[in-house]
């Protein structure tokens, strides 16, 4: 999530007599129903605020039927996890149904400079469409910053942080692809027990994060190589790790893993307990991490 991201789309229905407005708030409740509709309610920021939007008890809604809508949903999940302000742009119709037309993450500082003139003010540089802070070559990260329990052939850990999903460049801020652009590891067993492979990034200092996102190319998803049961752990010394979150991921090209709260640590590790069916390999093409702001 970059500062002042504006994600816009023509998701609102083309009804007449619609009023266009916006309201800046934090998400109170977020619902995804079986029909693929996303409904959300927000907090009233001032006592006398009145938001004339209502649909079954929710303020805003949109359908999860496009790539833009999916990006909205991912962004809103991360914003809710970090309790971040969002500027909701919407159209209100005569029946008080309000349909989102865009969402904006407000500027951190109006003049583009943090107090004291330091533009970073402890924040990491964000890259790509979602604000990845773990891209190789940024934030003091080099190929040596990434390690793994094991890897297959030349598909080492750093390749999962190069901004490529196999041979497709997915992060506009990246440079060259590392190897094949993937981290690949064989499924191994010891004493008939599956040994859980892991992928790790060392930021070199403590950072505050709110979530991550995994990418696997379509062919490998079809083969069943994408992670299914995963754990995320963190550490300040690289030796003693604390369990943070566990997720069950679907066989999808992109999966979002938001944290239940802001977490501060230096080392972050993705531990994989199982994949989605392949008997030989587990694969991660890109692992993006996002900071709290």
TrEMBL record:
Q: What is the lineage of its organism?
A: Bacteria, Pseudomonadati, Pseudomonadota, Gammaproteobacteria, Alteromonadales
**What is the name listed in the Swiss-Prot or TrEMBL entry for this protein?**
Discoidin domain-containing protein
Q: Please report the stretch or stretches of sequence annotated as the F5/8 type C domain.
A: 147-285
The species this protein was found in: Alteromonas sediminis
User: What InterPro entries is this protein classified in?
Assistant: FA58C, Galactose-bd-like_sf
**Pfam annotation, one family:** F5_F8_type_C
Q: Which UniProt keywords apply?
A: Signal
Keyword Signal (UniProt): yes
Signal sequence bounds: 1-18
Annotated SUPFAM superfamilies: Galactose-binding domain-like (SSF49785)
Q: Does the keyword Chloroplast apply?
A: no
